[in-house]
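Work Package 4 report. The design task specified in the project plan requires that, given a folded chain encoded as structure tokens, an amino acid be chosen for each position. We show below one input record used in the internal validation round.
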């Protein structure tokens, strides 16, 4: 999607903001704490229905106010799209697409693709397996919206089976109550492993190419999930009863990110981990454009501060040809190319320079 107009009311640091955005590369500059990240967060909420920084919707509303509103308009491919998200402190969050109410604000994700880089995204590389599983499951949903619910359905089945295990171990239920959930875990787990295997295979070539461009040689991603079967789950039933948890399935898998023979989680520098996340994001952006017919919105917050001049140039050249990108920086000189638009942020205001 290319965002043409932005309207914010009582969102974070903005009491009122009406802004026109240009397609292409938009550079957002301002002092630390001026509200640059808040602007990008608002665009993420307005296109995806949730914040990349917090799951507490009340934190989106400007202090002293009871509610806030984000309205965006622009083309998605050949179609014009209007998005609206409203947050009220005691009423929750509501969203509209082209004027029609949505059942849940997160449904916006199936309509508009937005990719975000923030410094805490380094957890995708340096964090534990659960962070990477969640990341690649979100990638699956963005690339193939029809399969976005598989991981949620599988997690629900695991939770039900674990509850049945604990009830049985405590003597409140029979083993017969476990069997239906074993079947669900096996069926949904197989679908999830198959889907993750496919998405990693799709991302891997582009990831290796983008990582190599950024100076991270021989980068690879590896997923070796094994589909859980009813027979395998039943074979370890005694152990699962003792633990009160299912000890087999894709909820325990990991995606290994390496450069050469080095595991980047354990042996990558922070700079290399940052390059890894950028390579993942750029590879996904290309796939989304190819598979869904429109480029995603890219939101890159504080991405330039720890890149050397050569890598800044490589990143800038790569995003110049992809739809619309907003990059934040403290100074305009941080970007080595001319932006299509320069926005200057001071507390509560945005000025087109």
């Amino acid at each position: 999607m290319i965002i043409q107009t932005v309207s914010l009311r009582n969102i974070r640091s903005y009491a009122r903001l009406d802004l026109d955005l240009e397609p292409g590369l938009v550079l957002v500059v301002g002092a630390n704490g001026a509200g640059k990240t808040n602007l990008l967060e608002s665009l993420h909420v307005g296109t995806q229905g949730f914040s990349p920084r917090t799951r507490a919707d009340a934190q989106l509303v400007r202090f002293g106010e009871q509610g806030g509103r984000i309205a965006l308009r622009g083309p998605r491919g050949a179609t014009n799209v209007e998005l609206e998200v409203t947050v009220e402190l005691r009423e929750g969050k509501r969203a509209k697409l082209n004027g029609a109410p949505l059942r849940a604000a997160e449904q916006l994700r199936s309509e508009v693709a937005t990719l975000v880089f923030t410094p805490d995204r380094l957890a995708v590389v340096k964090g534990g397996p659960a962070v990477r599983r969640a990341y690649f499951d979100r990638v699956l949903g963005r690339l193939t919206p029809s399969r976005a619910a598989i991981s949620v359905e599988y997690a629900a089945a695991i939770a039900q089976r674990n509850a049945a295990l604990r009830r049985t171990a405590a003597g409140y239920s029979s083993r017969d109550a476990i069997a239906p959930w074993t079947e669900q875990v096996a069926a949904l787990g197989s679908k999830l492993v198959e889907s993750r295997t496919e998405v990693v295979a799709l991302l891997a070539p582009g990831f290796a190419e983008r990582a190599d461009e950024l100076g991270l040689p021989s980068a690879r991603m590896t997923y070796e999930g094994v589909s859980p079967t009813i027979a395998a789950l039943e074979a370890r039933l005694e152990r699962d009863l003792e633990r009160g948890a299912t000890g087999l399935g894709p909820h325990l898998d990991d995606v290994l990110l390496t450069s050469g023979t080095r595991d980047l989680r354990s042996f990558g520098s922070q700079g290399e981990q940052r390059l890894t996340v950028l390579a993942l994001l750029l590879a996904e952006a290309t796939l989304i454009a190819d598979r869904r017919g429109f480029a995603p919105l890219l939101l890159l917050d504080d991405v330039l501060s720890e890149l050397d001049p050569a890598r800044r140039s490589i990143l800038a050249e790569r995003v110049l040809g992809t739809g619309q990108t907003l990059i934040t920086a403290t100074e305009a000189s941080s970007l080595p190319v001319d932006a299509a638009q320069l926005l200057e942020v001071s507390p509560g205001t945005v000025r087109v320079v």
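The chain has a mean pLDDT of 95. Validation will be extended to a larger panel in the next phase.
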